[in-house]
Amino acid sequence: MVRGLLKQKEDTMKLVSRFEAASRSTAELHGLLREAMLAFVAAPRSSQECRNALATIRSIENELAIRPRGL
Q1: Confidence (pLDDT) at 52
Q2: Residue 28: exposure state from Cβ atoms within 10 A (0-12, 13-18, ≥19)
Q3: How many whole angstroms separate alpha carbon 37 and alpha carbon 33?
Q4: 19: helix, coil or strand?
Q5: Domain limits of the chain?
Q6: SS3 sequence, 24-61?
Q7: In the predicted model, what is the mean pLDDT of residues 2-30?
Q8: Contact of 2 with 28, CB cutoff 8 Å
Q9: How far apart are the C-alpha atoms of 20 and 23, rounded to whole Å?
Q10: CA dist 65 to 12, 47, 55, 58, 59, Å?
Q11: What would the pLDDT profile of 21-71 be if each residue is shown by its tens digit?
């Protein structure tokens, strides 16, 4: 469904901006959140991949927080 943001071989996370998160459905955001969390755990500490995954998690969580529940 939302595959592609996590590069399978390189384990690098594409940064998802607040604007991009706002344009996604709630179901897509939950899928992206899962991928971002997996990328965060897999990334070396203090690496750019780790920072991108963390920023993506924050963007997605902020977007989900302003949406009505159940949509």
Answers
A1: 94
A2: middle
A3: 6
A4: helix
A5: 1-71
A6: CCHHHHHHHHHHHHHHHHHCCCCCHHHHHHHHHHHHHH
A7: 75
A8: yes
A9: 5
A10: 26, 27, 15, 10, 10
A11: 999 999 999 999 999 999 999 999 999 999 999 999 999 999 999 998 865
